[in-house]
Amino acid sequence: xxxxxxxxxxxxxxxxxxxxxxxxxxxxxxxxxxxxxxxxxxxxxxxxxxxxxxxxxxxxxxxxxxxxxxxxxxxxxxxxxxxxxxxxxxxxxxxxxxxxxxxxxxxxxxxxxxxxxxxxxxxxxxxxxxxxxxxxxxxxxxxxxxxxxxxxxxxxxxxxxxxxxxx
Length: 167
Fold this sequence. Notes:
globular, mainly alpha, 8 helices
């Protein structure tokens, strides 16, 4: 008889525990999903976009790209380099080049309005970076920095849209 009461109380406790835990587990699961979404493209996303771009290159463009990349480097392998570079002391200047902040009220991107100076970097946004580094890569007489410019172009061409800034 004592065992039956004990089992019954255990069942009631377990049922109450499950009822209490379901919402908590749902909240934990939802929080994990939110964190995963915040992580952005990640290396796999950048590498996929870079591989798709690589597949669309003309033979002449492919030759130029391969000439700019270092030994053993491919477009997918360098596609996340700017994300790592901007977190170094040497590359900290480039962090503002990873996005474009369109003003929420405007609902329209205007280069002169939305690509503004940040700290000591003028025209600090992904669009300015694309223009700048594309020019550097296209100049066949440019220095050895072309590989870095090409890596930055990959990043900025496959930058994820950001939420508009609050006014």
